[in-house]
Design a protein that fits this description.
The structure holds 2 protein chains of 2 kinds.
Chain A lengths: L6 E7 L3 H12 L4 E5 L16 H7 L3 H6 L28 H4 L2 E2 L27 H7 L3 H15 L2 E2 L16 E2 L5 H20 L1 E4 L34 H8 L5 E5 L1 E8 L4 E7 L5 E11 L3 H11 L7 E2 L1 E2 L2 E7 L18 E5 L10 E6 L6 H6 L4 H11 L3 E7 L8 E7 L7 E7 L3 H20 L3 E6 L9 E2 L25 E3 L14 H14 L4
Parallel strand pairs in A: 1-2, 1-10, 2-7, 3-18, 4-5, 10-21
Antiparallel strand pairs in A: 6-14, 8-9, 9-10, 11-17, 12-20, 13-16, 13-19, 14-15, 15-16, 17-18
Helix pairs in contact in A: 1-8, 1-13, 6-13
Chain B lengths: L3 H16 L5 H10 L9 H10 L5 H11 L5 H14 L15 H28 L1
Helix pairs in contact in B: 1-2, 1-5, 2-5, 4-6
The chains are: A alpha/beta, B mainly alpha.
Chain lengths: 540, 132
């Protein structure tokens, strides 16, 4: 029978981190679940990626230009680089067709959205953090229930890490924690320096340690322990890194789960006992309704905002928006200049650094420390103010010492950060999402102050900031807050159980309800919340 | 539109300049193919400028320094970055993109190059102004 003719118990929209987690909980609870998704996949590069480590592939693979540069040379970004343009060619499918099918207009905000199988989870940096009690409360999330949900999700996805100085801020307290991945020279040198300066840094509120990552170091089912191939942002062949499609692939083997791809969900309407979901086919724009008892939206904060505004036929309301400010500190550790590249070089974060100035674990910016190799030198050449010949020489010396810190800042509401739906008959859906994102002067100041403090802390560890790169608002790929949690049943809000205010059967499982975005990695909390929402849904 | 032979000649000059080695057929073909992509197509004015430069390989270092230091969005900087990316992913040159061991000589070389680059950039800027 066609999916559209069945009245499903639950329809989950989206196969990203939150959709996948919500669907798994619902399937485990025995409901008949349909997942509707864009479902786009990489059909070009996956088969090309060699089953070798990075250095061997670099030296022997004649086809490497295809996955490093792309068949259309799309891996070489020029001009002002927006969020998502740094994706490697094998990951470009993540953002494929988004501008055509889910258009967004903004001069102040450049987010990434996805219609891919596994959504933005395909590019997730895997950082896992458990929010503190203060942060959970500020987000509008229930403390005890979230702490249970973290354990459930941690076990499902597999998290590695260490119980060290940063354990209060990472996910190291999870029962199922696996041992941390190996440290490369960049991480080791920095951590050794931290151990010597620890007392002074702790006094200032800085804590450094191994990050908790959704990356397994011990085999789980058909997922292999991390093999140190350093093709982390090119291939997921070994499934060591958690990607949401791993969950959905597994769910597809269950009798009470169905997956239907190639759709953009546009809106929903509620009847007394059902929800009708209106979707449009990506390939030919044809429309089709799907019917269910309960609808769970996990289509990403911006996607969910579109669906909710369209369903309410509400073009004028402004929904508030949160997005963690994000910047890179490109640094060098002179001690490592000219050293050989070691075999432990990996693409994921080596260390995490947190700044908890008042010791309350409530406003904590986070720096993730990376080394640099697998993106190749030409990406850096573009950013260098030197001629090609000198830059080439300079980058060769610098490569082993390059230390990149990705800095995430906590985010609260302010008046000039909002989204709106606007009619536009030229687009696929007849409208477009307009985003205005202008932080207040005070917010900008706070970000600059954090950058300065992190720069000083790194300097004290003999790691020197060469350049501060601001990729623009939206580049953190952390969005939230459009439908804030509330107890008062106001329109365009969510009730504490994730139900959309004013609706009977529509739930939101993504970060739309979060009323604050901590600087710590968000994804584990998004998944824990999705599990929690799915756990609380009752069929009347 | 630039002919295939012109593009091959251009890439040969970049390879010689960046690596000091002979070009591989693989790298030349990739450069030609990249130039078929809309994002690398040149307009008439850019083609004219390039045609003035190609017969004089001696100008490449000057133009490289000028675009690197003063004109990061110049079309010639973009072409050299493309050439660099293609060379970097060619197994014949991969050793040139691995880390360099620490040697005082290497740093002296880098410092010397940096200093001369400033003078070259000034001359290169004049060259670009002349051919524009």
């Amino acid at each position: 029978m066609e999916d559209s003719l069945i009245r499903w118990d639950m329809i989950v929209v989206g196969s990203g981190c939150t959709g996948a987690m919500a669907a798994q909980t619902l399937v485990e609870r025995g409901f008949k679940v349909l997942m509707i998704d864009g479902g786009l996949k990489d059909e070009i590069y996956q088969s090309l990626l060699p089953d070798k480590d990075f250095l061997t592939a670099r030296q022997t693979d004649k086809q490497q230009h295809r996955y490093f540069l792309g068949d259309k040379f799309e891996g070489i970004p020029f001009g002002h680089v927006k969020a998502g343009e740094h994706l490697t060619p094998p990951r470009k499918f993540m953002t494929q067709l988004t501008q055509q099918k889910i258009p967004l207009q903004s001069s102040t905000f450049s987010p990434i959205e996805s219609l891919a199988y596994g959504g933005l989870g395909n590019g997730w940096g895997l950082g896992c953090c458990v929010f503190s009690e203060a942060e959970l409360k500020a987000c509008g999330l229930p403390v005890a229930e979230m702490n249970e949900a973290y354990e459930v999700v941690g076990k499902r996805i597999g998290v590695s890490g260490a119980k060290d100085d940063a354990a209060n801020y990472t996910a190291a307290r999870l029962d199922s924690l696996q041992p941390s991945i190996g440290l490369d020279s960049v991480g080791k040198n920095l951590l050794d320096n931290y151990q010597q300066k620890k007392t002074t840094l702790n006094r200032k509120g800085f804590y450094m340690g191994r990050p908790s990552l959704a990356l397994i170091t011990e085999a789980v089912d058909d997922r292999k322990p991390y093999p140190y191939k350093d093709f982390d942002f090119y291939s997921d062949k070994d499934k060591s890194a958690y990607r949401p499609w791993i969950t959905v692939d597994k769910l597809k083997t269950q009798a009470n789960f169905a997956y239907d791809s190639g759709w953009v969900v546009e809106s929903f309407e509620e009847t007394p006992d059902s929800v009708i979901v209106h979707a449009r086919k990506i390939s030919d724009a044809s429309k089709q309704p799907f019917m269910c008892k309960k609808l769970v939206l996990g289509s990403g904060v911006l996607g969910t905002a579109r669906i909710v505004l369209r369903s309410a036929n509400a073009l004028s309301p402004k929904l508030p928006l949160l997005s963690n400010p994000f910047s890179y500190l490109a640094c060098s550790q002179p001690f490592l200049l000219g050293k050989d590249l070691d075999p432990y070089k990996i693409g994921f974060a080596q260390l995490s650094m947190f700044l908890d100035e008042d010791g309350t674990n409530s406003y904590v910016p986070m720096g993730s420390v990376y080394s640099y190799r697998a993106m190749l030198l030409f990406h850096l050449l573009k950013e260098s103010p030197l001629d090609v010949k000198t830059a080439h020489l300079f980058l060769q010396f610098m490569m082993p010492s390059f230390t990149i810190m990705g800095l995430f800042h906590p985010e609260s509401y302010s008046a000039e950060k909002y989204v709106q739906l606007e009619k536009d008959n030229t687009t696929f859906s007849g409208d477009k999402l307009k985003v205005n994102y202008v932080p207040t002067a005070k917010e900008d100041e706070l970000v600059k102050r954090n950058e300065k403090l992190f720069g000083q802390a790194l300097r004290s560890l003999n790691c020197f900031v060469l350049r501060n790169i601001a990729p623009g608002h939206g580049a953190s790929i952390h969005y939230g807050g459009t439908l804030p949690f509330s107890d008062t049943n106001e329109p365009f809000h969510l009730l504490p159980d994730g139900r959309l205010c004013g609706s009977k059967n529509v739930y939101v499982a993504d970060g739309s309800g979060f009323t604050f975005l901590p600087g710590k990695g968000l994804t584990l909390s998004l998944m824990a919340n999705a599990h929690l929402v799915a756990k609380q849904i009752r069929l009347d | 539109m630039m002919s295939e032979e012109e593009l091959r000649q251009e890439m040969r000059q970049y390879i010689r300049y960046i690596t000091g080695r002979k070009s591989t057929e693989h790298a030349l073909q990739l450069f030609v193919r990249a130039n078929e992509q809309p994002s690398f197509l040149l307009n008439q004015e850019e083609e004219n400028q390039l045609r003035k430069i190609l017969p004089h390989p001696i100008l490449i270092p000057l133009i490289d320094c000028a675009t690197g230091l003063f004109l990061p969005n110049h079309f010639l900087r973009k072409r050299m970055t493309l050439a660099f990316a293609i060379i970097e992913t060619d197994t014949a040159y991969v050793d040139l993109f691995m880390p360099r061991p620490f040697r005082i000589y290497g740093f002296a070389q880098l410092a010397f190059r940096g200093t001369t680059a400033v003078f070259k950039a000034i001359i290169g800027r004049v060259v670009l102004w002349k051919i524009a």
